[in-house]
Amino acid sequence: MAKTHVHINRDFCRILGDMISGKASHQANDQQLRNFLDGKLRHLAAGKETTFLDSKLHGFGLRVLPNGAMTFTRRYLKPGLSKTGKPLQGRVTVGDYPTMTPEQARQKILDEFQQVATKRDSFTIQQEKRAKRETEAIAASTMTIGRFTDEVFETWECANAKTGRRRIRSLRRDFAAYLDMPLAEFNAGHAQDWITAAHLMKVTRGKRAGQIGLSNASINRDLGILSALFTQAWLKKLIPAHPLYRAKLHLAEPERTRMLSRDEIARLFAALYRREEEARAARDRGNAWRIARRYPLLPDLRAVPYIDAMIPMVVWGRETGERQQEMRFSTWSDVHLDASRPYVVVREENCKTSKGRKIYLSGEAIAVLTAWHTQSAGKFVFPKSDETGPIGPIRTAWKTVLAEAKLDDFDWSDLRHDFASQLVSRGVSLKVVGDLMGHRDPKMTQRYATVAPDHLADSVERLDSGRVVTETDRLPPILH
């Protein structure tokens, strides 16, 4: 559509000039201008979009469209220059004719001019917002992954995830090669390169130490942390798009459903009690040596039920399915041994899934905890040696016990799996098992459905137990 800018220095300018200077009455000027707009300007436009600019009131004009519609406009200069080196111009609509009279349009523009000195106009605000966005864009182009982690993501992650500090350490360790890369430069290709390297690296920690390649679960977990970082960067408009939005996660390895056999249980507890006896014998020899030299004696380990928290924690883990972290932070106020049906409460703040629960204790768990309570009566069920806080993670001593018991492919968390597997094998429903385990997602419990297939088959056979007439009775005699 052709557009024309026409400067009218005759009737239009004279009438508007008189209105501005106040030489004529506004009523007469408005009527004169209406007649002029309805006739001459439409004729001058001649079917083209034309803007008639006033030479008296700078920037004030009338825009006439080919369909005859007319609007009062105000033009202004934008910061900067065009590609040809000319000043950039913008246009805003003041009002429509004849809804707004020329006098009203003129007054509105004059009011805006008077406010510019004392109040920011809409254009100024828009320019400030644009400048702010440009500044943020420049900052985003230079903001590195490491800097964003230090200044923004670490605070957010620690405030929203229980394992936030551990996840930040993993991020800095596993993606160290990308910490100096700007956020906006990272893309799905870099993620794929990292995955390829993760499959070829030698594992130096954990159960896969010495093997080649991280497990798919570990890769997915690390990518999840990185994805959370870029989600926060995207929400803060530091990147135009999420680089891992369509990244495909690896199919995780089958979930473990490790269950101890009777022989393995016997070997495990034999190693545990052998460890107890060796510690007591060593203490006896030590005290005998001290008696000979008249030194103060150390506490007699034969006067207490257990030498340390190892056996009570193993029994508790196997009889309740609690995670080690949940046990370590449990207090005696959470253990109700005096109830008619003794139980333990797992508090939400101690749970991995933030799902508190109530677990009733078996006879074996009650006996062990009652004996342990006689020698550990502080705040925590399993305190440090100086009773200043909860006991730390059990790693080295546990590995020694497993080696002594000759248990391969077994970890502390497998005590929890053994608890669930034992329940399912005895006919407990998966829903109840999931509640006892503290699972948020039923899929986590579904892994134990294969533990007792015979029991599941027996459940289906119950359909036939109460039938009066079966389909076999309805078949023709020749098919019997």
Q: What's the arrangement of strands in the largest beta sheet?
A: 1-2-3-4-5
CATH class term of the largest domain: Mainly Alpha
Which segments are poorly predicted (pLDDT under 50) over 5 or more consecutive residues?
6-11, 19-28
Order of helices and strands: EHHEEEEHHHHHHHHHEEEHHHHHHH
Radius of gyration: 40 Å
CATH superfamily of the largest domain: Intergrase catalytic core
What is the quaternary state of this protein?
A: single chain
Largest sheet features = 5 strands, mixed
Task: Count the DSSP helices.
Answer: 18
The overall pLDDT average reads 78
Helix content: 40-55%
Q: How many DSSP E strands?
A: 8
Strand content: 5-15%
The chain-level structural class is: alpha+beta
Could you explain how this protein is built, in words?
It is a single chain. The protein has helices spanning 11-21, 26-45, 102-116, 122-142, 145-160, 164-174, 188-200, 216-235, 262-292, 310-320, 324-328, 363-373, 396-405, 413-425, 430-437, 442-446, 453-465, 471-474, and strands spanning 3-8, 49-54, 60-64, 70-81, 87-97, 335-336, 343-346, 357-360. With 480 residues, the protein is an alpha+beta fold. It folds into three domains: 3-119, Double Stranded RNA Binding Domain (2-Layer Sandwich), CATH 3.30.160; 140-235; 262-462, Intergrase catalytic core (hpI Integrase, Chain A), CATH 1.10.443. The strands form two sheets. The chain has a five-stranded mixed β-sheet with strand order 1-2-3-4-5. It has a three-stranded antiparallel β-sheet with strand order 6-7-8, with no helix packed on it. The longest helix has 31 residues, at 262-292. The termini are far apart.
